[in-house]
Amino acid sequence: MPLTLIVFAGFYAAARHAVRYADTLAQAVGGKLVLLHVKRASLFDPYEVLSEDLRQAELGTQLDTAAALYRLADELPSHPTVEIALDLLPIVAQDQADQHQPALFVLPRPEPYFTDAAGLARDCAELLRAGHHPLLVVPAHGPANQLPRRILIAADAEAFALARHAKPLHQLLALPEATLFLAHVSDGVRDDADCGAALHAVQVSGLLKGLASPELRGYECDNYEQGVLNAVQDTEADLLVVFARQRSYLGELFHHSVTAQLLARSPVPVLVVPTAAEVVPAH
């Protein structure tokens, strides 16, 4: 089944860049692209306490936005569809994912001086809670019309299973001429066995099924986040893959996690792969 990319669209630089990047990926995998415009992020529906007439009135004010998005869609080679939502509610995200499955949500990361790292992480956590769908966070720089050629997977030695909706991501890792790397970061204690276990955990998950084994590299750093960023630089990666375990995004500490810091600081797009609740036993 083709992979559908749902990109959060807008008219500022970060959003326009994310749209172009998502369009490039959609063309490469023969997938579909959806431009989703959300007016605001909300954890609850404000119209539960307000009238439906007010909702319809506010939707009416979005007509010009919709028209501009349709013009943008007409200019993109993937010929995306357009969706408009007032609030980024979990039910809205789930409805979009159900309608356009299998779905990958693509989020723009604003420029650093506008970035609210906690807010970005909160939005990501809400999307993950809604349906355990993978996320791709795109920084507002870099080539938008160039496919990833060097993909870095950051993994530890803990076994995991992929969330059901993460399995179609295999299409992105199988991009033509892409080279895969796997980085294991230790806190200063060199352990080749842990590096091997990290590679084994990723292979057993099925994410790399049918693909060549990635080049395995170990890094020493007492700060895991910085170690991963060092690995991005060392491998000259143009896409970073990280795993979000359910205990991270179902709890309230997601915005304090390493994943959240990587979303805010990574110089390249970050693909967040959700894992399932169950753990794959080591062999």
UniProtKB/TrEMBL annotation:
<feature type="domain" description="UspA">
    <location>
        <begin position="225"/>
        <end position="274"/>
    </location>
</feature>
<dbReference type="InterPro" id="IPR006016">
    <property type="entry name" value="UspA"/>
</dbReference>
<dbReference type="Pfam" id="PF00582">
    <property type="entry name" value="Usp"/>
</dbReference>
<protein>
    <submittedName>
        <fullName>Universal stress protein</fullName>
    </submittedName>
</protein>
